[in-house]
Amino acid sequence: MPVEFREIDRRAAIWVERMNRPVQSSEMAADFDRWIMSDPRHVESYARMQALWQSDGFDAALAEAEAQPTLPAAPNDNDPLSWAARNRILGGGVIAALLCLIIALPVAGVLLTDTYHYQAPHGDVLEVALKDGSTVMLSSGTAIDVRLTPWSRQVDLLSGEAFFDVAHEQLRGFDVDMGEAQVTVLGTAFDIDRSTDETLTVTVFRGVVGVDVGAGRQWRLPAGSGIEIAGNRVRSLPAPMGDSPGWIDGWYDAANTPVSQLIERLNRRSELPVRLEDAALGDLQVSGRFQISKPEAVLDALALTYDLNWQKHDDYYAISR
C-alpha cells in the first residue's frame, strides 16, 4: 500500500476513535468536517474504519494490540516520523487495532462484503432488490455481480441490459463497471445496455450519472439525456419517455433504428431466433413502438412497412423479400 494511502488510513483510524468517544467538542467536530470533506479518499477510508470498528474482528484485534508493551504517547501530527514508527507509537490501543484490521484486508474485506451473482433467464425480466434499497431490473439473459461493503456499492454488468433505480446515500457511491467503461452515481435511475461488444448506451431517467470510458473521455449526463458509445464514435440519444425503459414491459421504442438492431432486441425475448435471409435488410430503418414481447406482431409490422415476407420454421423465424 502506498505511503500516502497508509497515512490516510492512519488519520481515519484516529478520527474514528475520536468520533466514537462519548463527548466531542464543537472544535473537534469542525476539524472532522474539514478533514473528511477535503478529499473523497477521506470519506472512503473513514467509512472502512468505522465498519471495522463495528466488526466482529475488532475486539480480538484490540485485545492483541493492548497486549503489546506500553509505548510513549503519540507525537504531534506534524512530527516527521515514518508511518511505521508512528504506527508503533500509536500501537497501544484502538488505532493500532483498526490498522491491524485494515492491513488484514482482504480477510476483513471478505467478512464485510456481500457478493451475489444474478442472471435473468432467456425471455424473462428479472427484478433484483439489493440490501441498500436499490432495485435492478435485468433484461433477458443479462448477468451482473453485486458487491456491497460498508463503504462502497459495486455492480459488474457482465452482459446485457439493466435498469438501475439507486437508493441515495450520503457516503457510499454506486458504481457500475462494464470493463471498458464505468458509471458512477449516488442516487438516480438509469439504463445501461452493453448487449453488443461494439456499442454501449447509457440513458438517465432521474438524477445525474457520470460515464468514464478511460483515456480522459468522460461525460456527465443529467436526467432526460442519453449517450451511445461505439468505439471512437459518440452520439446523443433522444430523451427517454416515462420514468423507466419500455423493455421492462415488453416494448422497444425505435427512432430511425436499423432493422438489425430491432431484430437483436427481438431475439432477447423471442423463444425462436429471428434471422434475416438477406443481410442488407438489416440496414433498413424503422421508427415506432414495437411490442417485442410479441415477436410475430413485430414481424407483421416489418412485413407491412417494407413489403417483406416472414416464415416460421421449427426452430427459427426467417425474414425475406
Helix content: 25-40%
What is the total number of structural domains?
3
- Any idea what the CATH architecture of the largest domain is? Sandwich
Instruction: Report the mean per-residue pLDDT as an integer.
Output: 82
Intertermini distance: 63 Å
The major sheet is characterized as: 13 strands, mixed
For the record, the CATH class of the largest domain is Mainly Beta
Rg result: 26 Å
The counted number of beta strands is 18
SSE order and pairing:
Layout: H1 3-19, H2 26-37, H3 40-53, H4 57-66, H5 83-89, H6 94-104, H7 107-112, E1 114-119, E2 126-129, E3 135-138, E4 143-149, E5 152-165, E6 174-177, E7 182-185, E8 189-194, E9 199-206, E10 208-212, E11 218-222, E12 226-230, E13 233-236, E14 252-258, H8 259-269, E15 274-276, E16 285-290, H9 295-306, E17 309-312, E18 317-320
Parallel strand pairs: 5-6, 15-18
Antiparallel strand pairs: 1-4, 2-3, 3-5, 4-5, 5-8, 6-7, 7-10, 8-9, 9-12, 10-11, 12-13, 14-16, 17-18
Helix pairs in contact: 1-3, 1-6, 3-6, 4-6
Task: Give the key terms.
321 residues, Jelly Rolls, 3 domains, Phage tail protein beta-alpha-beta fold, 9 helices, three-stranded mixed sheet, 31% strand, alpha+beta
What does this structure look like?
28% of the residues are buried. By secondary structure, the protein is of the alpha+beta class. Strands 1, 2, 3, 4, 5, 6, 7, 8, 9, 10, 11, 12 and 13 form a 13-stranded mixed β-sheet that branches. A 3-stranded mixed β-sheet has the order 15-18-17, with helices on one face. Strands 14-16 form a two-stranded antiparallel ribbon. It folds into 3 domains: 3-111, no CATH class; 115-236, Jelly Rolls (Sandwich); 250-320, Phage tail protein beta-alpha-beta fold, CATH 3.55.50. A hairpin with a 4-residue loop joins strand 17 and strand 18. Helix content is 31%, strand content 31%.
